[in-house]
Specification:
The structure is a single chain. The longest helix is centred in the first third of the chain and has 100 residues. The protein is built from five helices and four strands. The protein has a four-stranded mixed β-sheet. The chain is an alpha+beta fold. 75% of the residues lie in helices and 8% in strands. It is rod-shaped, with a radius of gyration of 47 Å. The protein starts with a helix and ends with a helix.
Length: 207
């Protein structure tokens, strides 16, 4: 083998080795690049999911805040509406009660309610029953007859020009004030009942 042939063989060997090493380096670089790209994609997906989660949370927070604001506004609206309705009821209540007292059946229910309360809270004995001058005499006598069997002493009926409607019963220093004036003055209890009635009426109207 000539020197030129041996030299060429050595050159070919060196070239083959270089090609092999270059190919290995390129393969390793490609693999590393693929790994880095996959990791970059994974990191990007994680960041995207986190960004979406944060945006969803912000949207949920905004919706929750909007709902809370709406509920607050609704409550304020209902409170203002209830206050306005209650004020109107207080204005109309005296006339409405007088009208009820003028109707015999409703007046009898009014008297029965007063007597039920009086029987529960007043001692037996001489009752004093104050009433308006226009309360029919027949109804007065009927009440006296009913109470005669329940009390140890006959009650005393007293006409009071200041009573427009209802009755006031006193006994032993205690008072059951079922007059129009007494009912209107009891703004806490009557007001609470009016509000319950308004709420029930509103609920029925909404169903």
């Amino acid at each position: 083998m000539t020197i030129q042939t041996r030299t060429q063989a050595l050159l070919d060997l060196v070239e083959d080795d270089r090609s092999t090493q270059c190919a290995g380096i390129l393969d390793e670089a490609r693999a590393r690049a693929a790994t880095l790209l996959a990791q970059a994609h994974a990191d990007a997906r994680v960041r995207m999911r986190e960004a979406f989660a944060e945006e969803r949370q912000r949207a949920q927070d905004r919706v929750a805040a909007a709902r809370a604001t709406l509920q607050t506004r609704r409550r304020l609206h209902e409170q203002r509406r209830a206050s306005a309705m209650l004020a109107l009821c207080w204005q109309q209540l005296p006339d409405a009660l007088q009208q009820r007292w003028r109707e015999p059946a409703l007046r009898q229910r009014w008297v029965d309610a007063i007597m039920t309360t009086a029987r529960n809270v007043l001692p037996r004995g001489p009752w004093r029953i104050a009433h308006g001058p226009e309360w029919p005499v027949a109804e007065r006598h009927q009440l006296l007859a009913q109470l005669a069997a329940d009390l140890d002493a006959a009650p005393t009926l007293v006409a009071d020009a200041g009573i427009v409607a209802g009755l006031m019963v006193t006994a032993g220093g205690n008072v059951v004030d079922g007059t129009l004036a007494g009912l209107v003055d009891d703004r806490n209890e009557v007001g609470a009942q009016l509000l319950r009635h308004l709420e029930a009426s509103t609920l029925e109207a909404s169903t």
